[in-house]
């Protein structure tokens, strides 16, 4: 079996360089700021608590500001994700504020990739007129807005869109966790659980890598679990950088995780190791599911997964014995967030396996988190826009997708069909990262209006009619953020330095002013400070106090282990059998589903994942981070030596990667750390915007090879359903 063969040698080979990067504490910050900090005279240092924008974790940070310039950052000690530390991206990304390649003024497109600067007034006037003309001709349902939701965006963006009468608000989850979220939501009533890692005795990770896709506190909790003697099983076609902390690596065939979880569930019931009491009290439909599970034996799963039946049996039995301090971590994107036709069903099977262990709300188990009650704007003084009269586009096609997130790429499909006429992108590089870039480019070109709000000239901005320059997170205040977790809390992003470019504006101002130009200004008759005061009202925390502290946790409201909340599923219980799935035309109990495509002996499956020093496309142009990629050749694709040998490919060779969609050239890292069937493409290279000089041309554009597609259950992008061939070429 592959697992034992590669695991022993792979463990030894786990790269010291990348592991060191994963835990980097500081990046040389002083060197780049020193030229800005005026020497001599009085040095004034202020410390401002805020939140990082290096990735969606939004860890708490403290900005140390010297004479008005950002000097260094440290982790906020009270923030649950930071716990006093931030990662290398957190340090490096902050250099963006002083980058020479930022957007500095509003732009209007005047030709292919050609822009001219315009005033804010002109931008608002023209965008307002165009939006209103589209609404008049095609109705508000022809308008959409997509973003990576951050604290202010979450409030301002949907409000703006609803004021225009459109429900079409989308998030980036379509290429992140739409599948997992749909699977979990219809099973447990939440799109994700949290995991009480540090108290757990047996932890299985399925395609989730704390050591690469970093959140500082997650890494710390895993170290604690390891020190407490927990068993840590890593299921990944790749020996990722968390494997340094693992007790076992299972090099599964990509796309086959569902088979493994079904077989483990089969063993749990066969061995009578499931928590019958929990199942009786808190679930429905267990009988139907256990009947379905009879056929999913470990021997059946061995053929699909490449993991031996003995290993599957042993792990399921050991987890059953360790329950409730045993869990399959809820995962995020890697294995079943958005990748395969079977990903929603994998999400469901994982949630149900945890339920069978009875680990929900238990110490060392899965946690349904709690969040603080925040106030809303006073409805008399600040009336909310009416709920739009239409359903969000995509809801009919994908009724299982979590409604608040939607299926963002439906915008592109409808644009191709001539039904979507306007798209606003805020804090989103959808044209490069959400779907096949060629398809996205054509779709965007078919719309009457595309507006992008960004801090740099992203690929999406390049395809837009108007580009509006946001200030960076170092230069702005944002709305109050409610933190959900075992303990609920509050965090606040705050301005650290004066804005560097006078013509940039934060989105609360952009939406407020644009709303006026659209004739919907009455819905934005409040200030950000006023909003924050009202959001904080029910919490008993004053705005002044939150501004001073940056993070406030409500320890007295922490979840008490063992107390089961009422679930937000239709039955209010864990659903082993789902009427919702049945109504949507799917099997009400989880069944085995094949991935859409499979590699032959000659071809490979393309898979992707994070590197500790980059966040999607947004960090690629940060010189201090990209230099690490260059120094360690991190942009190379990974290939197994057995396959490389057959193809006459050696480490460092240049190869051509060919799929149904594209042909690319890139260098190879030949390593035993990858399953022979897979090619791993690190995220996120292949930047094509010529405005991003540091990043352009380095590495490989993964999404270029991904056919534009939707997973049938959740609408997710199916981004690992890609087959490629590889051959050696001259460099
Ligand atoms: N450094 C960094 N950290 C980040 C981010 C970032 O951009 N950069 N972004 C944040 C965001 S938005 C997200 S969603 C999370 C994502 O967090 P993760 O999901 O943990 O991150 P990924 O690296 O995308 O995927 C994790 C692992 O899944 C493996 N994998 C690929 N295919 C399969 C498969 O078929 N089966 C199994 N079992 N494993 C597979 C990959 O080899 C990879 O090691 O990271 C967050 N943290
Ligand atoms: N190959 C590959 N592709 C992936 C993934 C992968 O692992 N591999 N991961 C997927 C995942 S998990 C996710 S979540 C998505 C993420 O996809 P996106 O959410 O689109 O993330 P980015 O590609 O980083 O693009 C973010 C954009 O926001 C801009 N931005 C940054 N800061 C600000 C700001 O303060 N204000 C404004 N207005 N804009 C700002 C950036 O410049 C950038 O253009 O990518 C997915 N795509
Ligand atoms: S994990 Fe790193 S990049 Fe992400 S928010 Fe935290 S410190 Fe910033
Ligand atoms: Mo993500």
Total domains = 4
Figure out the total of helices.
24
C-alpha termini separation: 36 Å
What is CATH's topology name of the largest domain? Rossmann fold
Bound molecules: ligand MGD, iron/sulfur cluster, molybdenum atom
Helix content: 25-40%
What is the second-level CATH architecture of the largest domain?
Answer: 3-Layer(aba) Sandwich
CATH class category label of the largest domain: Alpha Beta
Q: How much beta, percentage-wise?
A: 15-25%
Family: Belongs to the prokaryotic molybdopterin-containing oxidoreductase family.
Keywords: 4Fe-4S, Iron, Iron-sulfur, Metal-binding, Molybdenum, Oxidoreductase, Signal
Organism: Mesobacillus zeae
Pfam family, one: Molybdopterin
Q: Explain this structure to me?
A:
It contains 24 helices and 27 strands. The protein has 731 residues and is of the alpha/beta class. The longest helix is centred in the N-terminal third of the chain and has 19 residues, at 120-138. It is globular and about 70 Å long. The structure holds ligand MGD (2 copies), iron/sulfur cluster and molybdenum atom. Molybdenum atom (MO) binds at residues 176, 333.
């Amino acid at each position: 079996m592959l697992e034992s063969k590669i695991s022993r040698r792979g463990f030894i080979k786990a790269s010291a360089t990348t592991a060191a990067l994963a835990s980097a504490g500081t990046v040389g910050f002083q060197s780049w700021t020193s030229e800005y900090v005026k020497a001599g005279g009085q040095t004034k240092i202020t410390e401002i608590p805020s939140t990082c924008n290096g990735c969606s974790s939004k860890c708490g940070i403290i900005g140390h500001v010297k004479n008005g310039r950002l000097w260094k950052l440290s982790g906020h000690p009270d923030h649950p994700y930071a716990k006093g530390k931030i990662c290398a991206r957190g340090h490096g990304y902050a250099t963006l504020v002083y980058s020479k390649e930022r957007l500095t003024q509003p732009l209007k497109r005047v030709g292919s990739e050609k822009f001219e600067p315009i005033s804010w007034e002109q931008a608002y006037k023209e965008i307002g007129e165009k939006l209103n003309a589209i609404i008049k001709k095609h109705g508000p349902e022809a308008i959409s807005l997509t973003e990576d939701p951050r604290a202010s965006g979450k409030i301002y963006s949907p409000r703006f869109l609803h004021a225009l009468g459109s429900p079409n608000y989308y998030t980036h989850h379509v290429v992140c966790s739409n599948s997992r979220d749909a699977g979990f939501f219809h099973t447990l009533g939440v799109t994700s659980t949290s995991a009480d890692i540090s108290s757990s005795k047996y932890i299985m990770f399925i395609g989730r890598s704390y050591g690469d896709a970093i959140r500082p506190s997650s890494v710390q909790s895993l170290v604690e679990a390891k020190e407490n003697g927990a068993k840590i099983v890593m299921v990944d076609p790749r020996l990722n950088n968390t494997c340094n902390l693992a007790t076992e690596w299972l090099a599964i065939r990509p796309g086959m995780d569902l088979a493994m979880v079904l077989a483990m569930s089969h063993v749990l019931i066969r061995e009578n190791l499931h928590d019958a009491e929990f199942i009786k009290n808190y679930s429905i439909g267990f009988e139907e599911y256990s009947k379905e599970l009879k056929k999913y034996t470990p021997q059946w799963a061995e053929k699909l997964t490449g993991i031996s039946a003995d290993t599957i049996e042993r792990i399921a039995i050991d987890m059953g014995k360790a329950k409730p301090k045993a869990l399959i971590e809820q995962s995020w994107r890697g294995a079943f967030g958005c990748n395969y036709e079977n990903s929603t069903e994998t999400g469901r099977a994982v949630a149900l396996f945890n339920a069978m262990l009875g680990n929900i709300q238990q110490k060392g188990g899965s946690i349904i988190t709690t969040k603080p009650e925040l106030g809303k704007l006073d409805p008399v003084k600040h009336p909310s826009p009416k709920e739009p009269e239409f359903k969000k586009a995509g809801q009919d096609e994908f009724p299982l997708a979590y409604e608040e997130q939607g299926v963002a790429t439906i915008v592109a499909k409808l644009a191709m069909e001539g039904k979507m006429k306007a798209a606003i992108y805020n804090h989103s590089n959808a044209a490069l990262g959400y779907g096949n870039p060629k398809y996205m480019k054509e779709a965007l070109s078919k719309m009457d209006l595309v507006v992008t709000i960004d801090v740099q000239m992203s690929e999406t901005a390049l395809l837009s009619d108007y580009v509006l320059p946001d200030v960076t997170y170092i230069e702005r205040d944002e709305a109050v953020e409610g933190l959900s977790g075992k303990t609920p809390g509050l965090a606040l992003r705050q301005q650290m330095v004066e804005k560097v470019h006078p013509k940039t504006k934060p989105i609360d101002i952009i939406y407020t002013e644009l709303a006026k130009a659209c004739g919907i200004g009455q819905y934005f008759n409040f200030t950000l400070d006023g909003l924050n005061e009202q959001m904080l009202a029910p919490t008993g925390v004053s705005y002044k106090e939150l501004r001073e502290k940056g993070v406030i946790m409500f320890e007295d409201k922490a979840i008490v282990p063992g107390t089961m909340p009422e679930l937000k599923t239709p039955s209010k219980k864990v659903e082993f059998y789902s009427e919702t799935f049945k109504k949507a035309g799917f099997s009400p109990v989880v069944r085995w589903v094949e991935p859409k495509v499979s590699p032959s002996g000659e071809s490979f499956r393309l898979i992707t994942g994070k590197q500790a020093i980059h966040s999607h496309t947004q960090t690629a142009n940060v010189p201090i981070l990209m230099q690490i990629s260059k120094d360690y050749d991190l942009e190379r694709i990974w290939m197994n030596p057995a396959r490389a040998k057959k193809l006459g490919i050696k480490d460092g060779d240049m190869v051509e990667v060919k799929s149904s969609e594209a042909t690319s050239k890139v260098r190879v890292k030949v390593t035993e750390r990858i399953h022979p069937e897979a090619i791993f493409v690190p995220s996120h290279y292949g930047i094509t915007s010529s405005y991003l000089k540091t990043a352009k041309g380095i590495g490989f554009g993964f999404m270029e090879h991904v056919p534009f597609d939707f997973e049938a259950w959740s609408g997710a992008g199916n981004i690992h359903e890609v087959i490629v061939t590889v051959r050696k070429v001259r460099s």
